[in-house]
Amino acid sequence: MKRSLRSWLWRVPIDQEFDEEIALHIEMRTRELIAGGMDPAAARAAAIRKMGDVRTLKRECVDLGRKRDREMRVTLWLEELRDDIKFAIRQLSAAPAFTLVATLTLALGIGANSAIFALVDATLLRPLPYPHPDRLVSIWEKSPVNARGFASPPNMLDWNSRSRTFENIAGFTPAVASMVLAKPDGSAETISRQWVTAGIFEVLGVPPIAGRMFSSEDEQKRARVVMFSEGLWESRFNRNPAIVGSEVKLDGELWTVVGVVPKEFEILGKTSMWAMRPFVNMPPRARGAYQLQVVGRMKPGVALQAAQADLAAVAEGLAREYPQFNKDRTVTLEPMHDTMVGSDLKTTSMLFLGVVGFVLLICCANVANLLLARATARTRELAVRSALGAGRLRIVRQLLTESVVLALVGGALGIGVGAFILRVAPTLIPDGLLPGTVTLQFDMRVVGFCAVAALMVGVLFGIAPAWQATSFSSPEVMGSDSRTTTGGGGRMRSLLVVGEVATAVLLLFGAGLLLRTLIAVESFDRGFKAESVLTMMVDPLGSTFPTPEKLQQFFDQVEADTRAIPGVQDVGWSSGLPLGESVFGEYPQTYEVVGDAPVAEGRKPTSSYQVVSPSYFSTLDLAIVAGRGFDARDKRGSPRVAIVNEAFARSLGGRDPIGLQIAVKPADAAPGDKPTILEIVGVAKQVKQRPDESSDFVQLYAPVAQDLVGDIFMLVRSQSGRASALAPSVRAVIERIDRSQTTSVASVTTLEDVEWAATGRHRFRAVMVAAFATLALVLAMVGVFGILAYSVQQRIRDFGVRRALGATSGDVMRLVVGSAIKVIVAGAVIGLVLAAAFGRLIATMLFGVQPLDLATFALVTIVLAITAALSIAGPAWRAARIDPAVALRTK
Amino acid sequence: MPPTPNKTPNALLHGALDALILKTLTRGPSHGYAVARFIEETTGDAFLIEDGSLYPALYRLERKGWVEAEWGTSELGRRAKLYRLTKAGREQLVAEMATWRKFASGVSKVFAT
């Protein structure tokens, strides 16, 4: 091939080549004919004749020649690439320290990016796991106060029958509750359950893996039918096909299991089964009960706007027909993917993506710096290659191949780093951040991401050093002593480090804000003591305690016996946990003071509603600041009373709340429903309901005896030590009292763990960003150390001369430190300016701290100063210790 | 490039010129005219070709990588494009000759009956 390569490099244009060839042929033929005795003119004519149609020949040959050249160019290119790669591998293995540092740096950067890519991919990029997910939309009822409200079942049915742009519309209840499954051995188990309408699986396009979906006959017959999740089918029923079509006892009633839903579709809610709620022959007031989250499947080819217009017209008709319920109500449509992902997850993902992107840039800058230093050392080698005839582009290409090979090795290691991060990540990710059962997975998409990232990164950090390295005049370089060639490379390296420091400062600042937010949400006074409180959800089977009196007796008995357990200080009951969940789900109540001027529906203030036992307040150490707590007087049948919290009391316009009568009813009640009248008997201290609530939350407590609920949280405060240690004794008490043993005990945890989970998002963000910022800082300081150590090495002679001329070691040290400080201060200033500009972008994730927080600015500066001092110390010390005599003797 | 066996007689006849050129070049690098002359002499004018048709064949062989071209000097002292047999070309020639012999012996058997 060498010959063909040379002929290609030194080639003449093909048509000229052909002409010359033919001319030679004709001339030689002519000469021969003349030698054979022919007349020269005739000989020439004969030679030309014998040649044939030269024009056609030429076209054919030139065409063939061009094709050959094209093919040859590709072959040649591939051969050069192979040679370059071989050479690159040789070069890299000849400098193992450099290669190790560079590939590890890149592996960290690419690995971190691939893990975050997996998060972004799982949540933002991947479509929903349903067929034609682009045709699925969420449909909300829009009222003057809420653009994304739940829908009432009759409205949903009318949307379905009247719209022209939808194939089918169905709904589900957003909250997941539970049912008690009676097992053949007489024990009971709580299974999470979500209510759905008959058509939901048809809308989503989920084919069951066993059995069938709900049908409209089921709905017409008001059949009790459930579908199991694959997980439940597998864990409890061992994938037994006989269970499909059979009946199970749930909450004391017989339900038919019609089918099993495959795993990948379990994303509506974290639930183990779906029970059908029939909506036939509903009373008129059902139109005012807003309880369903609705999903519709648009017909093929329908745009979201068209569907929106269609349904808005339907809603307008419904508003005219049922003004009592539907006045001023219309619909909001959004892609179902948006509903599932949620804005919190979207912003968190984008934040992480931005942060790891910056980390990768720092990695690139560091490797580029290493390459620049190496390029200086390789100047002679490159000059020789240039003198031997390699063009600048050819050398740049060779150097780029080297950096891409480096990046690809880094990327391959990065795949490992990413896989590791994804292995440990699930323990860091707070519950509820990812929708449904979406899980992070390491798959070919992540590997592909690593490959693409490595290629881009390789070019990114390679191009500048390659260009820099080839800007020389070869005779000058070859003739000179290799160490005297510095110059432009030094400036570029300083600029890279300034950029690194600026980026690290920016990330540190973000991490600082998020950490301060975490501290704020964790240390905020919540108004109660969470330490040493055990909680559990107690759910007695309805048929075992058929009357409220029996149920109340059961709870009283459990409380009395639990108090007798050694180490128990207090026992309370509640429908919800502060910072945790409530058995009611979101259950806001509207309220007004009896006797005040009536307030229009939809304008009434709302309050959260919680039923508690008298001892709830003492168990949580929650103070009653005015009036009294609940006691034995507040029992079933006696006048209904309430305790309000401080925010509620403030809403009453300065009146003494004690003794006021308030009219309360659920916010989603139909307009005709009668409110409940409660008398306020006390005011409780304000409690945080969410760790980052921005305005005080309005709360209403009612005695559990007056509004008994079937499943309730029990709270047990221990005298000392870990509350969780009490769990087995409390369970034993319950089992002893409920002799049928059908009471299920679930969600056994401590209030501290509930708090921990409630602040999970903030912790996740703070920990992740802080970890990446630390990585960025370390990398940036490695960069600072790198250029400093290198420049000291380069200037040994210079420093020696200075010392010889009378400079003290302090002077030399100041010189080194000064140049480092210039770079760091420039980077810090740029970083802080960027931080001030970018701070607002994460304002929605902050709590208790402003985006321009001065303390964070100060903290970042201090952290930077300390780490900078560490990275400067070594090279400065070395410079100061230079012995002039030795330095001057070195070449 | 692996040798491409020509299977049909038609292709055989068509490929005959290629085979002849390859065979010619086994004696060493030659320019187009020398190839033409050698074929004329050795085939005893049995294989009469137009001089022109030689060149597309040479370009085709070059594209296939069976011959390669370089600039040399002709007997007249002028720059001449010389064709040289490559390793792949040599292998192809062996294959062509084998195929040809098989074909020729087949035909001879038919004529011998």
What would you say this structure looks like, in words?
The complex is a heterodimer of chains A (891) and B (113). In chain A, 53% of the residues lie in helices and 15% in strands. By secondary structure, chain A is an alpha+beta fold. In chain A, the strands form four sheets. A six-stranded mixed barrel of chain A has the order 3-4-9-6-8-7. In chain A, a hairpin with a 2-residue loop joins β7 and β8. The longest helix of chain A has 42 residues, at 336-377. Mean pLDDT of chain A is 84; it is low at 1-7 and 481-487. Chain B is of the alpha+beta class and 113 residues long. Chain B has a domain at 29-107: Winged helix-like DNA-binding domain superfamily/Winged helix DNA-binding domain (Arc Repressor Mutant, subunit A, Orthogonal Bundle), CATH 1.10.10.10. Helix content of chain B is 58%, strand content 12%. Chain B is built from four helices and two strands; from the N terminus they run αααββα. At the A-B interface, α1, α2, α3 and α4 of A face α2, α3, β1 and β2 of B.
How would you summarize the topology of this molecule?
The complex is a heterodimer of chains A (891) and B (113).
Chain A (H helix, E strand, L loop, with lengths): L1 H8 L4 H22 L4 H12 L2 H41 L1 H30 L10 E7 L10 H10 L3 E7 L4 E6 L5 E9 L3 H5 L5 E2 L4 H5 L4 E5 H8 L9 E4 L2 E9 L11 E4 L16 E6 L5 H18 L1 H4 L3 E6 H42 L1 H9 L4 H37 L15 H26 L4 H6 L8 H36 L9 E7 L8 H16 L4 E7 L14 E5 L12 E7 L3 H5 L3 E4 L13 E5 H5 L10 E6 L9 E9 L14 E5 L8 E7 L8 H11 L6 E7 H8 L1 H35 L1 H9 L4 H30 L15 H27 L3 H6 L2
Parallel strand pairs in A: 4-9, 6-8, 15-20, 17-19
Antiparallel strand pairs in A: 1-10, 1-11, 2-10, 3-4, 3-7, 5-8, 6-9, 7-8, 12-21, 12-22, 13-21, 14-15, 14-18, 16-19, 17-20, 18-19
Helix pairs in contact in A: 2-3, 2-4, 4-14, 5-12, 5-14, 5-15, 6-10, 12-15, 12-17, 12-23, 14-15, 17-23, 17-25, 17-26, 18-21, 23-26, 25-26
Chain B lengths: L8 H17 L6 H12 L10 H11 L2 E7 L5 E7 L1 H26 L1
Antiparallel strand pairs in B: 1-2
Helix pairs in contact in B: 1-4
